[in-house]
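Troubleshooting log. The previous structure file for this entry was overwritten by mistake, so regenerating from the original sequence record. Sequence copied from the archived sheet and checked twice against the printout by T.R.
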Amino acid sequence: MTTKQNEMTDGMAAYQLPPVEIFRQEADEAALAISEEGAERVKSIIINATEGTNAKVSELKFGISASTLPRRANVTIPSIKVKAGCSHDEWRITLQPRTRGKAVTREDLETVTYGVFNTIARCGHASLSTDREDCPTRNHKCLVLQINRASRTFLSLRRAFGSEAWREAGGVLPFVVGEGVGGRLVTADLAALPHLLVGGATGQGKSVFLHGIIASLLCRQRPEDVKLLLVDTKKVEFGAYARLGKAFLAQMPDGEDAIINDAGKGFAALASLYAEMKLRRKLMEKAGLNFFVMYNGAFAMRRISAEDGHRHLPRLVMIIDEYANIIMTHGRAFEAMVCDLTEKGHEVGIHLIIATQRPTMQMLTSKIKDAFPARAAFRVGTSIDSRTLIDAEGADVLCGRGDMIFCHADGQERLQAPMVSPADIDRLVDYVRKACDAAGCGEGYVLPMPSVDDDKSGGTRINGAELDPLFEEASRFAKRAKGVTVKKLQLKFVLGYNRATRLLKQLVDAGIVSDEKQG
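Regenerated output below.
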């Protein structure tokens, strides 16, 4: 290890992590308890709903009156449990058949569900639980009703980072996901996920959730351990992080910080990240090590030398806020590179977080969904979008403002994401910048230039800075047209032959126009 590297390591050892006191203290934000009167009212509604009729269910579901159908009272309720949350109350209703040898039917479950929601006149979601505690025998069914609250509370960064659950959170890249029912703080490890897809309608809390992830990383990671690449095609979210400088931001090949506000440059940044993945795999193969942690450990113990081209490899986290803007411009080339990075990137310390406000089947293809098993769903407009995003209904009845469904390998749960204010971001960034300056953490991490043969779709990689100014408009035209030729581009945009030819070549290279559709 060189003298310069020793000095840099000594300086980084003096870096002080941000204290929780820099975040604002909220007055009263704990989940409100359920009053005894309110709980008894809901219990009576649930009990009355179990003695409903076929006619009641038909009337509630379809608007059909069928008063001649007989009354039903096939089930009894051994227990009712309730837990309060920030945005909803969770009622766990254990049902069993009234007659021995019978079973709780789907119609019985619908009777309770529709009876409760119709009487309370609030939105919510119903599901079944297979927990042995709730279902002691095969004949028991546990109906879980998530009933939205009339008044709600929120989770601040001060309360989240000051909690015992966060202090005890393990993993390599832990972050706060949100607060569940009963005041339980849920954390996750990005290195274990190892990538995350975030979706939801505009203004429902996606960008605030991304700020919470970035804040979690800055509060637990040191500058030499993680570097961020932030792509914000909406041009409104990540500007405050520019003050972090080289300490926490990866550097693009042209020397600029990796805070990108252009779709074309975002595509070029992803290509650089893809080249970095290939370079890291070659370094690990050269060192004869198969695991990322073992490689960095070998470099720290000087078993591999910087003179042979080896170096300490920080984890790279790329966050893309409005992924749809890039994929609409660059099509299958961008999608193919994302899928390849999610498949192989986590093995060399590269993690992706993509967010979109258009969780449609056109944006979230089967390849993208397979590449991101971990997903965070905020409120969407329709149940179809909910099924597209998390393969289930429920995201369409969320309360908004940070109310989310977190899907992971162990299942899914409804949480309240942390509320991050602009003032919290400014204080955190100012502290990190001053701490990095005091510790001398000025060494940057520069990404390599993308290679020509990195395009997984078969075309040549395009540098975002060299795209034609009409590229985005031409890509939209190409998707509407049945076939695109040089002549059509000349007539549409009033171009000369040479420029139209170059523009068509860029469309083909980006995967927007295939070779067989050029006529």
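Residues 399 and 452 are 47 Å apart (CA to CA). Archived copy saved in two places this time.
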